Amino acid sequence: MVTEALILSGLLFTIGAAGVLIRRNAIVMFMCIELMLNAVNLSFIAISRQVGVSAQLFVIFVMTVAAAEAAVGLAIIISIFRHYSSVDVRNFRLLRW
Amino acid sequence: MVGPPVVPALVALAQEAAQSAEAAHQAAYVPFLPSWMILLPFLGFLFNGAVGFFAPQQRKLVSVVGPGVLGLAALIAVVNLVMLAGVHDAEAVIRSYFVWIDIGQLRIDAALQLDQLSILMAVVVTVVSFIIHVYSIGYMGADPGYARYFSYLNLFVFFMLVLVLAANFPIMFIGWEGVGLCSYLLIGFWFTQGEKAEAGQKAFVVNRIGDFGFLMAMFALYAYLGTLDFHTVFEMAPRAFEYGGAAVTLITLFLFLGCTGKSAQIPLYVWLPDAMDGPTPVSALIHAATMVTAGVYLVARSGVLFALAPISMNVVAVIGAVTALFAGTIAVMQFDIKRVIAYSTISQLGYMFLAVGVGAFTAGIFHLGTHAFFKALLFMASGAVIHAMHHALEHAGEPAGEDMTQDMRNMGGLRSHLPTTFKTAWVAALALAGVFPFAGFFSKDEIIWSAGAAGQTVLWAIGIATALLTAGYITRWLVMVFHGENRMGREVRGYLHEAPLVMTGALVVLAIGSVVTGWVNIPEALPLLPEFTWLHGFLHPSFEAAEHILVEHLGEPAHAAPVGGGEGVWAIISTVAALAVIVIVFNALRAKKYRPAAEAVEPSGPAGLLYHKYYVDEVYETLILRPFRGICRFSWRVIDQVVIDGVAVNGTAYATRFFGWIVSRLQTGQVGTYALIVVLGVLVFLGFVTL
């Protein structure tokens, strides 16, 4: 049972990582990051079968951080959209040499 | 000359001198106020320097103090000489004042050595200096830098006395460097004129080459003997060094390199003619009478070392003789009134080195003393002429640059305008030419005789040839300046006048000196004259050790010239020959019409070679200075600008910037790239962990 859950978690994580790398829409990339976070949560839950309840504790932490991240991230995306009228990350290249 | 406040001091000095003289009669020689002899000129320097800074218009004060301190110093020196002469074979007295350097084995005292040689030199230096100081009151009277001039002159005498009275090599070196400094300051006294400042620099730089030799000799002496005190060194040397060994030869050759710089011998003589850019009394004092003879003094002082090194002795004698002839020929074709005498000085210094080089130390010092008087007189006579020319041209409203006032082609017939100068110049010229009974006759004759007696046939012949040459060029000088027709315009001629009394007075005193100084040593061989070898007897203790070594290894000097004939015969031959040359040259040139410098054509052919001083300056320029400048330019343009500035300093900056630029390309601003790098980084990290 644990193995299947971990494989599913790995798949979800890979999909999320691939999405972050491939997609250009900031909202979609953001959602992919959430997907990666939740894939990790899933693997924690599965591993708690073997290591005990402390693994589940981490899930609570991750969800808290994810909520905070969602608030900050979405706020940034909104303000970028207001400025550029777009959320395509290829347009955002001011922070470079 | 000496003002009222100085009189009580004089009286006190005289009283003390009398007491000391009494003491000396009973016991050995007790030096009389030796430190004051040195301190007085130094106080004069401080005082005049302060006046120059704070009250440059106080000329009277300077005129009293400047020569006054020298008068007192000369008095002390003469008193010491008299006291020393009263004691038979007095031992050298060493007065140590304080420890100057004390490091490990090296201990150097600030000490004075008072013996026959140093006191005699001190007398020559202070007496001639005093006369020239007095003369300067007239010559420099109108100069805005009057106080500064006298402070330099006082400082010079101070250093010169340190040089001659020092009891060890390092203290002597202080004086040696100090007189070089003052020479530089005084050659470039009118430093606002570019070429004069450059002449001062040339003198300084050329002297540095010689100073290098002096330093090397000192290092080597210390390495071998562990001491630098004259007394100890000369006592140890005969035992410590092998006769003719490499060590002592090297040391003496280095010492002699120092001498060629300071005393203007081949190859380092080139600075002396240019040194004539300084005021004329300076030329008389520093570049004729005193400083340039320091080399001769050094060789005489280190006589023991030189006597142990026959090769060095030969080098000294040959360089001296060749320089004498070489500079003498250049003097024949010069037109600048001072340059003729400058080359004559180089030539006469050559004679002195010839003398000390064949072991005739007394003869060398003798010629040094007589030369100091008659050569200073020649320079000061030139000074009086230049003074007159300058004033006449200025009054007539014509340009009065040095090319006008010092070119003998513009002169002629000055005998009626400057009668005193004319007469004294003749005295000096006859002394220089070695005509009986003037001073040069006795001293020069002894040198030539000594060269012959030492078996140096070629050097002896060169000596005689140079003596005739000397008579020739100095007669030409006299004729061009004083005889014949005046070549100035009539208007200028009217303004020509004799120099003021302080100047002519000094000339007369020196003229007397140019006659009597020769009579302190009359060789036995001269017919009709009583034998009076006072100088030989007096200097005997100073040169005894060196002469002993020479006799031991080379045998007694001969009693006949290389081609036969005794000393008396050759003395008569040479004075008659010199007189004959004077008469011939006088008659040949008196009728000759010289054109004024402005219209004159440059001499060509052999005369041109002499006129251009054998192109030695040009040869040095091509062979030494130009390659040297090439090296300097290479160091500047290539090593400094390209290698150090370009590659090392700026190169580091460029490289840093370049690598920074490469790394900065990673920062694209694209979120996708960053994400890719993070993922790749994690994968690589995981790969490492799992493997």
TrEMBL record, chain A:
Its membrane topology: Multi-pass membrane protein
Oligomeric and partner information: NDH-1 is composed of 14 different subunits. Subunits NuoA, H, J, K, L, M, N constitute the membrane sector of the complex.
Entry keyword annotation includes Glycoprotein: no
GO MF, any single term: quinone binding
Tagged with keyword Cell wall biogenesis/degradation: no
Protein keywords: Cell membrane, Membrane, NAD, Oxidoreductase, Quinone, Translocase, Transmembrane, Transmembrane helix, Transport, Ubiquinone
Biological source species: Candidatus Kutchimonas denitrificans
Transmembrane regions: 6-22, 27-47, 53-81
Reaction catalysed by this enzyme: a quinone + NADH + 5 H(+)(in) = a quinol + NAD(+) + 4 H(+)(out)
Entry's localization field: Cell membrane; Membrane
Function per UniProt: NDH-1 shuttles electrons from NADH, via FMN and iron-sulfur (Fe-S) centers, to quinones in the respiratory chain. The immediate electron acceptor for the enzyme in this species is believed to be ubiquinone. Couples the redox reaction to proton translocation (for every two electrons transferred, four hydrogen ions are translocated across the cytoplasmic membrane), and thus conserves the redox energy in a proton gradient.
GO BP term, example: ATP synthesis coupled electron transport
UniProt name for this protein: NADH-quinone oxidoreductase subunit K
Family statement: Belongs to the complex I subunit 4L family.
PANTHER family recorded: NADH DEHYDROGENASE SUBUNIT 4L-RELATED (PTHR11434:SF21), NADH-UBIQUINONE OXIDOREDUCTASE SUBUNIT ND4L (PTHR11434)
Gene3D superfamilies (alphabetical): 1.10.287.3510
GO CC annotations, alphabetized: NADH dehydrogenase complex; plasma membrane
Broad class of the protein's primary localization: membrane
InterPro entries: NADH_UbQ_OxRdtase_chain4L/K, NUOK/Mnh_C1-like
Annotated EC: 7.1.1.-
